[in-house]
Design brief:
The chain contains six helices and 31 strands. The protein has helices at 141-145, 155-158, 284-287, 302-305, 360-363, 385-391, and strands at 35-37, 44-48, 50-52, 55-62, 68-72, 80-81, 95-100, 109-121, 124-134, 151-153, 162-166, 171-175, 189-192, 194-196, 199-207, 213-220, 228-230, 244-252, 255-263, 266-269, 272-275, 278-282, 298-300, 308-313, 318-323, 338-341, 350-355, 371-375, 378-379, 399-406, 409-416.
């Protein structure tokens, strides 16, 4: 598991693929204490979640804090606090300094390991919880998602409950394992999960253009908003597609992540199949820490997982997938070459953070730091960051009109969306 994060619907997928955690003085799986329903008579609890750029965001109280917002991440075996905003207050218990390592080419970063904390999530409580606090805000999650995000939570939620995720209603239901009864659903399919330590894996089949079919072991990763990443070095039969684009993919704990982006012919998950999903192939220097872990060939992220409502059952090592209304959505990509951030999370005010070389945005004269005012006559002050990116994901050849402000000067530019991949 690792995490890196860039900003479009495609590349946002990859922040949360690249926080590979290697903490000295860490804790074992057996030392994790459980979460429980506050009301012992309840068999289940449901609550709504936010779903932004393919990431599930849930409210979490730590000790006596106000609501903090954490990304729900099956690929993460610890809980991480990545940032606090002005006005946030949080008291922590028993901290000690550790080093966290992950993807990228730099050095490990400093963090605090705090234990003995109380977590509360909508009628669920856990005492003596562990939390890692990153001392440098390397991800800028709130700015990239346009809303307040404080961290990530994973295994310690999934290990204690059967977790039902309804992507259509944006509702999460936690079931008591001993009282849960599986309901028969039309078109549902239950397949095994391989739990390796704290991480869930499933098997799928990659279909290549020449008809080659390759069975792959994929990390089930709700904390990654991409569709799929693959390590072509993990199997001699796995090949990159003929047409890929080299790209800066984002930032990990230890620095920049680079690799290739392309579309493979297809992927099959038992009876379910998807044609031409967008796949990331991180390079060996950037992603060496994730390659070969637990015999994996890659990871399956939320751009595919969101197409199913799911019941994730660690108790019985299985997952039930039910296709939903998103099942046939096309796999889209940002065709402008322009990435944006929200400097003030929660406010619809966006600036350009980067412009890819030889992209339509670059040829149109756009630069990092430009303030975005409107896209195709739509004022961005009325749009979420996700709605802005949806305008960047049109068809090749679509015309884009942008109004931006630079150094108190306002100008208009036009360009056409590229094929890209």
């Amino acid at each position: 598991m690792g995490r890196f994060f860039s900003k479009s619907r495609f590349s946002i997928s990859l922040l949360l693929l690249w926080v590979s955690i290697s903490a000295s003085n860490g804790y074992s799986q057996s030392s994790l204490t459980g979460l429980r329903f506050v009301d012992p008579d309840l068999d289940k609890i449901s609550f709504n979640f936010e779903f932004i750029n393919n990431l599930i965001i849930i409210p979490l109280l730590i000790n006596n804090s106000d609501s903090l917002y954490f990304i729900l991440d099956t690929g993460l075996n610890i809980s991480i606090l990545t940032e606090l905003s002005m006005g946030d207050s949080l008291s922590l218990n028993y901290t000690k300094q550790v080093k966290l390592g992950g993807l990228g080419k730099g050095e490990s970063i400093d963090a605090l390991h705090s234990y003995g904390n109380t977590f509360q999530i909508s009628g669920v409580r856990g005492d003596f919880q562990h939390l890692y606090i990153i001392l440098q805000n390397v991800f800028n999650l709130s700015s990239m998602l346009g809303t307040r995000v404080h961290g990530l939570i994973g295994y310690n939620l999934f290990k204690d409950f059967i977790v039902e995720i309804d992507y259509e209603k944006k509702k999460l239901t936690l079931h008591r394992p001993e009282s849960y009864k599986m309901r028969s659903r039309r078109r549902s399919y239950t397949l095994p999960i391989i739990l390796d330590q704290t991480k869930p894996y499933i098997y799928a089949t990659i279909v290549q253009k020449d008809g080659t079919r390759i069975r792959v072991k994929l990390l089930l990763d709700t904390g990654a908003s991409h569709a799929l990443w693959l390590d072509v070095n993990s199997d001699p039969d796995l090949k990159k597609p003929e047409f890929v684009k080299s790209s800066y993919l984002g930032t990990g704990l230890n620095g920049e992540i680079h690799g290739d982006i392309g579309r493979i012919y297809g992927i099959e998950i038992n009876d379910f199949s998807f044609k031409e999903p967008i796949v990331v192939f991180p390079d060996s220097n950037s992603a060496a820490v994730a390659f070969g872990v637990d015999g994996r060939n890659g990871s399956l992220g939320n751009e595919i997982l969101r197409r199913f409502n799911q019941v994730i059952d660690y108790t019985h090592s299985q997952i039930t997938l039910t296709p939903n209304k998103f099942y046939k959505d096309p796999f889209k990509v940002n065709r402008t070459g322009v990435e944006i951030i929200a400097p003030i999370p929660g406010l619809s005010y966006y600036t350009i953070s980067s412009v890819r070389k030889e992209s339509p945005g670059k040829h149109a004269g756009l630069k990092p730091g430009d303030i975005l005012e409107s896209v195709n006559r739509k004022r961005v002050s009325n749009l979420s960051i996700e709605e802005v990116y949806s305008l960047f994901e049109g068809k090749p050849g679509d015309k884009i009109k942008m109004v931006v402000r630079r150094n108190d000067l306002r100008f208009v530019t036009y360009f056409y969306l590229e094929q890209y991949i």
